[in-house]
Protein: AhpC/TSA family protein
Organism: Salegentibacter agarivorans
Amino acid sequence: MARTASNMIALGTRAPDFNLVDVITSNRYSLENIRGKKGTLIMFISNHCPFVKHVNEEIVRLAGDYRVLGFGFAAIMSNDVENYPADHPDNMNEVARKHQYSFPYLYDESQEVARAYKASCTPDFYLFDDELKLIYRGQLDDSRPGNGIPVNGRHLRDAMDAVLSNKKVPELQKPSLGCSIKWKYAPES
């Protein structure tokens, strides 16, 4: 399976705003709607990617553990659904219900949000502080399909725990690794 790494944009980058439809409720959500008092996690995921399938249960656990502690969550799917029909909004809704997502699963049909975040793969994680400045980007943990390492969300959990403890999130962060975002056309460099 092909592997694409995160772009690892600069820490301190302000979270780009968005206004996208949640496939679960059909409501529109902006960054402000999902913003948490302690921080906000934006996840780029998809339905068909084996890397996302591998971590889906941990993403749900993570949201369950940290929403009550003041973090906001949203997952965004930006793939070209014409060429990747498994990622169609109807299927997004089905996946969200199957895994009991407690967070909005947003459809980025124009792919503008993925471009604004410079997202390159699924899964890709962006953690912003209470001022919506980027403090963590990269991988959930070291687990990958077939590598035998258990999925535990350690790297992202460590970053969120640092926020809760009023500690600085370490700047040495590993990129996420997953399926490339399926662009309708090549993104601008």
User: Anything to note?
Assistant: The helical segments are 31-34, 50-67, 89-99, 112-117, 154-164. The two ends are 25 Å apart (CA to CA).
